Amino acid sequence: MLLETEGLTKRFGGITAVDGVDFALEAGELCSIIGPNGAGKTTFFNLLTGVLEPSDGSIRFAPSGDGGPEPAVDITAASPNETALAGIHRSYQITNLFPTLSVLENVRVAAQASRGSDSWKLWRNVADFEEHYAEATAILERIGLADEAETVTENLSHGEKRSLEIGVALAGDPDLLLLDEPTAGVSSEGVDEVVALIEDVAADHSVMLIEHNVEMVMDVSDRIAVLHRGELIADGPPEDVRGDEAVQEAYLGGYGREESAEGGEHAEGDAAADGGRRASAGGGPP
Question: Where is the composition biased (Basic and acidic residues) (predicted)?
Fold first, then answer.
Protein backbone atom coordinates (compact mmCIF):
# COMPACT_ATOMS: atom_id res chain seq x y z
CA MET A 1 0.00 0.00 0.00
CA LEU A 2 1.46 3.37 -1.02
CA LEU A 3 -0.74 5.65 1.09
CA GLU A 4 -3.20 4.90 3.88
CA THR A 5 -5.28 7.07 6.18
CA GLU A 6 -7.17 5.85 9.24
CA GLY A 7 -9.88 7.94 10.89
CA LEU A 8 -8.45 11.08 9.31
CA THR A 9 -10.30 14.09 10.71
CA LYS A 10 -9.94 17.87 10.55
CA ARG A 11 -12.06 20.25 12.58
CA PHE A 12 -12.16 24.03 12.33
CA GLY A 13 -13.95 25.11 15.49
CA GLY A 14 -17.42 23.60 15.25
CA ILE A 15 -17.00 22.59 11.59
CA THR A 16 -15.71 19.13 10.69
CA ALA A 17 -14.20 19.47 7.22
CA VAL A 18 -12.84 15.91 6.99
CA ASP A 19 -14.65 13.33 9.10
CA GLY A 20 -13.02 10.01 9.97
CA VAL A 21 -11.79 9.13 6.48
CA ASP A 22 -10.32 5.67 5.96
CA PHE A 23 -8.61 5.65 2.58
CA ALA A 24 -5.93 3.55 0.88
CA LEU A 25 -4.09 3.99 -2.42
CA GLU A 26 -2.15 1.28 -4.20
CA ALA A 27 1.01 2.18 -6.09
CA GLY A 28 0.27 2.91 -9.74
CA GLU A 29 -3.36 3.94 -9.27
CA LEU A 30 -5.03 7.06 -10.63
CA CYS A 31 -7.72 7.89 -8.08
CA SER A 32 -10.01 10.91 -8.45
CA ILE A 33 -11.54 12.64 -5.44
CA ILE A 34 -14.91 14.22 -6.21
CA GLY A 35 -17.76 15.77 -4.27
CA PRO A 36 -19.91 18.90 -3.99
CA ASN A 37 -18.76 22.30 -2.78
CA GLY A 38 -17.43 22.16 0.77
CA ALA A 39 -17.06 18.38 0.70
CA GLY A 40 -13.54 18.53 2.17
CA LYS A 41 -11.55 17.60 -0.92
CA THR A 42 -8.88 20.27 -0.75
CA THR A 43 -8.70 19.98 3.03
CA PHE A 44 -8.02 16.26 2.51
CA PHE A 45 -5.13 17.13 0.17
CA ASN A 46 -3.84 19.70 2.66
CA LEU A 47 -3.78 17.03 5.36
CA LEU A 48 -1.92 14.57 3.14
CA THR A 49 0.74 17.14 2.27
CA GLY A 50 1.28 18.60 5.75
CA VAL A 51 -0.29 21.98 5.04
CA LEU A 52 -2.79 21.21 7.80
CA GLU A 53 -2.34 19.04 10.88
CA PRO A 54 -5.08 16.48 11.51
CA SER A 55 -7.36 16.84 14.51
CA ASP A 56 -7.52 13.03 14.73
CA GLY A 57 -6.42 10.01 12.77
CA SER A 58 -3.23 8.99 11.02
CA ILE A 59 -1.49 9.03 7.62
CA ARG A 60 1.04 6.41 6.55
CA PHE A 61 3.15 6.48 3.40
CA ALA A 62 5.43 3.86 1.86
CA PRO A 63 7.87 5.57 -0.53
CA SER A 64 9.74 3.59 -3.12
CA GLY A 65 13.43 2.96 -2.62
CA ASP A 66 16.19 1.69 -4.86
CA GLY A 67 15.19 -1.87 -4.01
CA GLY A 68 11.43 -1.37 -4.20
CA PRO A 69 8.81 -0.12 -1.72
CA GLU A 70 10.15 0.80 1.69
CA PRO A 71 8.31 0.16 4.98
CA ALA A 72 5.42 2.56 5.57
CA VAL A 73 6.22 5.56 7.74
CA ASP A 74 3.88 7.73 9.77
CA ILE A 75 3.67 11.19 8.18
CA THR A 76 0.68 12.43 10.20
CA ALA A 77 2.64 15.30 11.74
CA ALA A 78 5.05 15.87 8.83
CA SER A 79 5.54 19.37 7.43
CA PRO A 80 4.94 20.22 3.75
CA ASN A 81 8.69 20.10 3.15
CA GLU A 82 8.98 16.70 4.84
CA THR A 83 6.09 15.21 2.88
CA ALA A 84 7.57 16.55 -0.37
CA LEU A 85 10.97 15.06 0.41
CA ALA A 86 9.24 11.77 1.27
CA GLY A 87 7.82 11.67 -2.26
CA ILE A 88 4.41 13.40 -2.23
CA HIS A 89 4.21 16.40 -4.57
CA ARG A 90 1.17 18.48 -5.53
CA SER A 91 -0.26 21.19 -7.72
CA TYR A 92 -2.83 23.74 -6.53
CA GLN A 93 -6.27 25.05 -7.53
CA ILE A 94 -4.79 28.50 -8.13
CA THR A 95 -1.74 28.70 -10.37
CA ASN A 96 1.30 28.63 -8.10
CA LEU A 97 4.30 29.59 -10.25
CA PHE A 98 7.05 32.23 -10.32
CA PRO A 99 5.53 34.52 -12.99
CA THR A 100 8.68 36.51 -13.77
CA LEU A 101 10.98 33.50 -14.11
CA SER A 102 11.35 31.56 -17.34
CA VAL A 103 9.50 28.30 -17.84
CA LEU A 104 12.79 26.41 -17.53
CA GLU A 105 13.76 28.20 -14.31
CA ASN A 106 10.43 27.35 -12.68
CA VAL A 107 11.09 23.65 -13.17
CA ARG A 108 14.81 23.95 -12.40
CA VAL A 109 14.06 25.60 -9.03
CA ALA A 110 11.60 22.80 -8.22
CA ALA A 111 14.17 20.17 -9.20
CA GLN A 112 16.74 21.78 -6.93
CA ALA A 113 14.28 22.11 -4.04
CA SER A 114 13.34 18.44 -4.31
CA ARG A 115 16.88 17.52 -3.27
CA GLY A 116 16.45 19.06 0.20
CA SER A 117 18.13 21.90 2.08
CA ASP A 118 21.67 20.89 1.05
CA SER A 119 20.84 21.77 -2.55
CA TRP A 120 20.85 25.48 -1.67
CA LYS A 121 24.40 25.59 -0.29
CA LEU A 122 26.54 28.22 -1.99
CA TRP A 123 29.63 26.06 -2.52
CA ARG A 124 28.46 23.10 -4.57
CA ASN A 125 29.78 21.24 -7.60
CA VAL A 126 28.58 22.90 -10.79
CA ALA A 127 27.70 19.44 -12.11
CA ASP A 128 24.91 19.27 -9.53
CA PHE A 129 23.28 22.34 -11.06
CA GLU A 130 23.71 20.85 -14.52
CA GLU A 131 21.74 17.85 -13.29
CA HIS A 132 18.89 20.16 -12.22
CA TYR A 133 18.82 21.79 -15.65
CA ALA A 134 18.96 18.41 -17.38
CA GLU A 135 16.01 17.18 -15.31
CA ALA A 136 14.07 20.39 -15.98
CA THR A 137 14.72 20.15 -19.72
CA ALA A 138 13.53 16.54 -19.80
CA ILE A 139 10.35 17.49 -17.93
CA LEU A 140 9.62 20.32 -20.38
CA GLU A 141 9.96 17.84 -23.23
CA ARG A 142 7.48 15.55 -21.53
CA ILE A 143 4.87 18.22 -20.85
CA GLY A 144 5.14 19.76 -24.31
CA LEU A 145 6.72 23.06 -23.29
CA ALA A 146 10.29 22.57 -24.52
CA ASP A 147 9.84 25.30 -27.14
CA GLU A 148 8.77 27.70 -24.38
CA ALA A 149 11.77 27.04 -22.12
CA GLU A 150 13.00 30.65 -22.21
CA THR A 151 9.53 32.21 -22.20
CA VAL A 152 8.67 34.31 -19.15
CA THR A 153 6.04 32.27 -17.35
CA GLU A 154 3.49 35.07 -17.04
CA ASN A 155 3.31 35.14 -20.85
CA LEU A 156 2.06 31.55 -21.13
CA SER A 157 -1.58 30.77 -21.80
CA HIS A 158 -3.62 29.55 -18.84
CA GLY A 159 -3.60 26.00 -20.17
CA GLU A 160 0.18 26.09 -20.58
CA LYS A 161 0.53 27.31 -17.00
CA ARG A 162 -1.55 24.38 -15.76
CA SER A 163 0.72 22.00 -17.68
CA LEU A 164 3.76 23.76 -16.25
CA GLU A 165 2.38 23.27 -12.75
CA ILE A 166 2.25 19.54 -13.39
CA GLY A 167 5.82 19.75 -14.65
CA VAL A 168 6.91 21.54 -11.47
CA ALA A 169 5.20 18.86 -9.38
CA LEU A 170 7.04 16.17 -11.36
CA ALA A 171 10.46 17.56 -10.39
CA GLY A 172 12.29 15.09 -8.21
CA ASP A 173 10.27 12.17 -9.58
CA PRO A 174 7.73 11.84 -6.72
CA ASP A 175 6.05 8.56 -5.82
CA LEU A 176 2.66 10.26 -5.52
CA LEU A 177 1.36 13.27 -7.42
CA LEU A 178 -1.65 15.21 -6.10
CA LEU A 179 -3.36 17.40 -8.70
CA ASP A 180 -5.92 19.90 -7.44
CA GLU A 181 -8.33 20.84 -10.26
CA PRO A 182 -5.71 20.79 -13.05
CA THR A 183 -8.23 21.79 -15.74
CA ALA A 184 -9.77 24.69 -13.79
CA GLY A 185 -10.10 27.73 -16.05
CA VAL A 186 -8.63 25.92 -19.05
CA SER A 187 -10.37 26.42 -22.39
CA SER A 188 -12.21 23.49 -23.92
CA GLU A 189 -9.44 23.18 -26.50
CA GLY A 190 -6.76 23.06 -23.81
CA VAL A 191 -8.52 20.53 -21.58
CA ASP A 192 -7.71 17.66 -23.96
CA GLU A 193 -4.01 18.52 -23.76
CA VAL A 194 -4.03 18.60 -19.96
CA VAL A 195 -5.95 15.30 -19.83
CA ALA A 196 -3.45 13.68 -22.21
CA LEU A 197 -0.62 14.89 -19.98
CA ILE A 198 -2.30 13.48 -16.85
CA GLU A 199 -2.74 10.11 -18.56
CA ASP A 200 0.91 10.13 -19.62
CA VAL A 201 2.08 11.00 -16.10
CA ALA A 202 -0.17 8.31 -14.58
CA ALA A 203 1.61 5.69 -16.69
CA ASP A 204 4.61 5.83 -14.33
CA HIS A 205 3.37 7.69 -11.24
CA SER A 206 0.61 7.21 -8.71
CA VAL A 207 -1.86 10.09 -9.05
CA MET A 208 -4.65 11.53 -6.94
CA LEU A 209 -6.84 14.05 -8.70
CA ILE A 210 -9.42 16.56 -7.50
CA GLU A 211 -11.55 17.54 -10.46
CA HIS A 212 -15.01 18.99 -11.17
CA ASN A 213 -15.15 17.79 -14.78
CA VAL A 214 -17.22 14.64 -14.24
CA GLU A 215 -16.87 13.28 -17.77
CA MET A 216 -13.11 13.60 -17.58
CA VAL A 217 -13.02 11.90 -14.18
CA MET A 218 -15.09 8.98 -15.43
CA ASP A 219 -12.79 8.57 -18.44
CA VAL A 220 -9.34 8.74 -16.82
CA SER A 221 -9.76 7.27 -13.33
CA ASP A 222 -8.95 3.77 -12.13
CA ARG A 223 -10.91 4.57 -8.98
CA ILE A 224 -13.14 7.35 -7.74
CA ALA A 225 -13.58 8.34 -4.09
CA VAL A 226 -16.50 10.60 -3.19
CA LEU A 227 -16.49 12.98 -0.24
CA HIS A 228 -19.68 14.56 1.09
CA ARG A 229 -19.72 16.79 4.17
CA GLY A 230 -16.28 15.48 5.01
CA GLU A 231 -17.24 11.81 4.91
CA LEU A 232 -16.17 9.21 2.37
CA ILE A 233 -19.50 8.00 0.97
CA ALA A 234 -18.26 5.91 -1.98
CA ASP A 235 -15.00 4.47 -3.25
CA GLY A 236 -14.63 2.18 -6.23
CA PRO A 237 -14.41 1.83 -10.02
CA PRO A 238 -16.01 4.65 -12.05
CA GLU A 239 -18.92 2.51 -13.23
CA ASP A 240 -19.83 1.57 -9.65
CA VAL A 241 -19.59 5.13 -8.36
CA ARG A 242 -21.61 6.47 -11.29
CA GLY A 243 -24.55 4.24 -10.37
CA ASP A 244 -24.33 4.70 -6.60
CA GLU A 245 -27.59 6.19 -5.32
CA ALA A 246 -25.91 8.05 -2.45
CA VAL A 247 -23.49 9.66 -4.90
CA GLN A 248 -26.32 10.57 -7.26
CA GLU A 249 -28.15 12.24 -4.41
CA ALA A 250 -25.14 14.06 -3.01
CA TYR A 251 -23.35 15.16 -6.15
CA LEU A 252 -23.83 13.76 -9.63
CA GLY A 253 -27.41 14.95 -10.07
CA GLY A 254 -28.39 12.29 -12.58
CA TYR A 255 -25.08 11.81 -14.42
CA GLY A 256 -24.91 8.23 -15.62
CA ARG A 257 -28.57 7.36 -15.10
CA GLU A 258 -30.47 5.47 -17.76
CA GLU A 259 -30.16 7.09 -21.17
CA SER A 260 -33.09 9.13 -22.38
CA ALA A 261 -35.22 7.77 -25.22
CA GLU A 262 -34.70 10.87 -27.38
CA GLY A 263 -31.01 11.55 -27.37
CA GLY A 264 -29.40 8.67 -25.55
CA GLU A 265 -27.20 11.15 -23.72
CA HIS A 266 -26.28 11.04 -20.08
CA ALA A 267 -27.54 13.91 -17.97
CA GLU A 268 -24.74 16.30 -17.23
CA GLY A 269 -23.06 15.96 -13.85
CA ASP A 270 -22.80 18.73 -11.36
CA ALA A 271 -19.73 20.56 -12.62
CA ALA A 272 -19.43 22.86 -9.61
CA ALA A 273 -15.79 23.31 -8.66
CA ASP A 274 -14.73 23.01 -5.06
CA GLY A 275 -14.48 26.80 -4.90
CA GLY A 276 -15.89 29.31 -2.48
CA ARG A 277 -14.47 28.12 0.77
CA ARG A 278 -11.09 26.92 -0.45
CA ALA A 279 -8.41 26.03 2.04
CA SER A 280 -5.04 27.70 1.77
CA ALA A 281 -2.01 27.15 3.95
CA GLY A 282 -3.38 27.56 7.45
CA GLY A 283 -6.79 28.47 6.09
CA GLY A 284 -10.27 27.15 6.73
CA PRO A 285 -12.18 24.32 5.15
CA PRO A 286 -12.92 24.31 1.42
Answer: 256-269
